[in-house]
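Table S7 (text form). Paired inputs.
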Amino acid sequence: MVRAAFRFLALAGLFATVAAAQESDYGFSVPMTLSAGGMYTHRTQSDEPDASPVTGGFRAMLYPTLKLGSHWFAYAAVQVRLAPYFYYDAYDPDHEFYNNVLQAFVGYSFHPGAATMVVKAGRLTSAFGSFPPRYDDLDNPLLDQPLAYNWQLPLYTNQLPCGVKSFAGYGGGQANCFEYWEDSSQPGVVPVTLYSLPGIEADFSGYRFDGRVQVTSGSPASPQSLSRAGQFAQWATGGGYTIRQGFRVGISGFRGPYLDASLASWLPAGTTLRSFPASGVGIDVQFARGRWSATGEWQRFWFDLPNFAQSPAVAAGYGEVKAILTPRFYLAERIGWISSRNVASDGYSAEFMSPTSSYETAAGCWLNRYQLLKVGYEWLHSEYQPGTLGNVFGVQLVTSVHGLNWAFR
């Protein structure tokens, strides 16, 4: 299956051509990024000891765009993948297809003076953090994602922990104060999602400043569809200042309810789901000069819970460096970590989760104008997977395809 995917991408690279589309205020296009990935890792044997350590998958990113004049447009980003493709997929060795809508919105742009304003409505990537715009395999020089965007915490939106005994650091399990949960198979909270949230957003750029303000239904830590009962409007924002060309500093934040509506009747008297929000703050930096570029983020997240004197809080960060050796070759490195403060309740204190860190290195080679081959290795340091059990050797072949382009006016 993996070999077939690589053959398909090789053929796509042979037939990919630059779209010589006529400049028009009205048109439709569907550029694509197609990727095949293979990996060698013992993560596949976490639940199935007999599973092969060699696995792989396929990913297609489609970006349909409709331009309706000089102001109005519609845009979407749709992901279809055969897992295991991402490194975090490898904990489940079964091959399954998934599809996700990363963005799907209608937008209106205008230009007050030398600035640009864009208003969007639909399904939006979270305004929190600086990595989501680099989620495409052509924009991410490495193969994995930073830990804050893929690491599941021992926290569940549909459960109310009894106290510190509910967390592994105290030797407990996934206990529940009221012995109630909606779905015990639900995955743990990821601090900030890479997928879409229903909402509206206003973007600004100009005079060295850029900013975004977003109101969504659902938290970046717990994305939900509009059809899900008990949704709350909440905010996220971000922005930055370009000190000089190639050097930008940014900040971002979000706050709002994250617990499942099924828990509303189990909360302490006089409180609601709004009484226990998830919050996040972040700082990001981007630098580029000559052959070198670097980016990094520091983030902190709080998850308020009833019955806790000190609720779960997590800090995460990463630093990434890329060096272009020749027009075809580059090297990239990323160091990341995620850790937590202790939780406290009823006079007891315990570790919320064990600290985890990762180190990833990768080399990239442009085979031609449309195809990028990436080879990398990741070291993962986690209490849950000692030694080399969590390490991954990976390879990706990424193809850019300029698909349908139609200027109709």
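Next pair, protein 2 of 2.
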Amino acid sequence: MIRNRLLKFFIISILFFSGCDKGISPEPEGAQAGFSGTIFFTGAWPDSIARTHLVVFKDPLDSVSDFNPFNLRFVSLEIPYGSTIFNYRSLDSSSFSSIAAGNYAYIAVAQSKTPDLSLNRVDWLVAGVYYSDNDTTKPGILIIPENTLITGINILVDFNNPPPQPPGGN
């Protein structure tokens, strides 16, 4: 009987110490994956805009069906109407979910005329797109390594020269 208890204690101890890798302890501060940058607005804001958000999609928006909740990975809190500059950090400003390490194919400032949050593609207009290395021929890829905050994900919203719209938009 004592031998059985010792054997159980020994097995449980081995499982505990070999399987425990900091358990549920929090990650060190600043170790979360994310991104940050500045959105610059030029030109006059359209009067019809009800809401503006920074959005991130995992895969490119090559068809109307790509605009879906399974592809949408991040939606910022609402950007104030009339802003000329807006600094953000994904770790501080998500109304949808936190973003994980990975590659993201479409990062944009999207605006809607509807006061309620909608997932209908026709309700959204892309006002600005993230381009990497100043290549405005295609949206930039955002690569977020594990435990890294990527900085400098800046977007220009030029209301006088809007970017090409993904399929299904107005």
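The domain at 29-158 is CATH 2.60.40 (Immunoglobulin-like).
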